[in-house]
Design a protein that fits this description.
globular, about 35% helix, alpha/beta, 10-stranded mixed beta sheet
């Protein structure tokens, strides 16, 4: 009988190391693309009306999340806008949402249910307030809207929240001085085009698809709102989140006669609650930052999202998971 001789210690150790490496490589090959720590489960992201920027941003973000977190099932939930989104979040009907900073601050000041548990993942892009009128309209400022039929945004929308404040800044009574039509961007362009509205307000990223399509087929003009910045700030509370801004001439070329239009802008935030899992929130935040360029090709203002601006989420503190991401991603 031939007995195999024991391998020298060095040679045997080398063979064991090679075998261990092969097993480890096989295990890694078998793992899903997201890796062993990639979060899974189901989440709902509340967005906005179908023709608004919130909805389109949500659709594009969902596509990137499907790539980065293949075990995460994301459902998009339509809404009337920021105010409605916050309500969905605190009631548990959504785990993540997009909301404007002024709407968040207003909810906090009012002491709404769950307000103290609201957290932010990132500052996204800015919304620009847009006052749209027919090309031949005599309206040159918000003050000229007295007695007219005005689209003010649906109840529960951030548009209506800002419109009410603009009315006060212009010394107009929202309930008595205008004929307020409480409808959203999915309805207002058609009503203006058919002569059933004299003007409408919209707050959204540039360009908003519904406004652009209207300007392409019907002669409209954007009215400046820059004269109301100071009176807005004087209202305090959530109004301090508005800043003076300019819509560039190429935002809606047909509606601006190649001229920039002064207006106000407010930041949008990706919002969640302190109940959300830190690992999931960290992964969501990473995808938001990494998807900037791809989403920015359709939602142009999203190109401005980066590590330098995303952490400025006032009035909300960062969620712990988001904070961990920014610390790890810091150059």
């Amino acid at each position: 009988m031939v007995h195999s001789l024991p391998l020298p210690c060095g040679r045997r150790a080398l063979q064991l190391a090679v075998a261990a490496a092969a097993v480890a490589g096989l295990l890694l090959w078998c793992l899903p693309p997201g890796g062993p720590q990639a979060p899974g489960g189901r989440v709902t992201l509340a967005t906005g009306v179908p023709t608004g920027v919130y909805a389109r941003y949500g659709e594009l973000l969902k596509q990137d999340l499907a790539h980065d977190l293949p075990d995460l099932d994301v459902t998009l939930s339509r809404s009337e806008g920021s105010v409605d989104n916050i309500r969905k979040l605190v009631s548990g009907r959504a785990e993540f949402t997009i909301a404007a900073a002024d709407a968040v601050a207003t909810y906090q000041v009012a002491g709404g249910p769950g307000a103290t548990g609201l957290r932010a993942c990132a500052r996204l892009y800015d919304d620009y307030m847009q006052l749209v009128v027919p090309k031949g309209s005599k309206v040159r400022s918000t003050r000229d809207l007295k007695g007219l039929r005005v689209g003010v945004g649906a109840d529960g929308s951030g548009v209506q929240l800002i419109t009410r404040r603009l009315m006060r800044a212009a010394k107009l009574d929202f309930d008595r001085d205008i004929h307020a039509e409480r409808v959203g961007i999915d309805t207002m362009p058609r009503l203006l085009e058919s002569g059933k509205l004299d003007a409408f307000f919209w707050s959204g990223g540039l360009p908003t698809t519904a406004v652009k399509r209207l300007a392409d087929r019907f002669p409209v003009r954007l009215v400046q709102l820059g004269d109301l910045v100071k009176p807005l700030h004087a209202q305090g509370r959530g109004s301090r989140y508005y800043r003076a801004a300019v819509m560039p001439a190429d935002a809606y070329p047909e509606a601006q006669d190649d001229r920039a239009v002064k207006t106000i802008a407010v930041a949008n935030l990706l919002v969640t609650t302190d109940r959300e899992d830190p690992d999931l929130t960290r992964a969501m935040t990473r995808t938001v930052i990494d998807s900037r360029d791809r989403i920015g090709r359709e939602v142009h203002d999203a190109q401005k999202v980066d590590l330098r601006t995303a952490v400025f989420t006032d009035p909300l503190p960062l969620h712990e998971g988001a904070r961990r991401y920014y610390v790890s991603a810091k150059p």
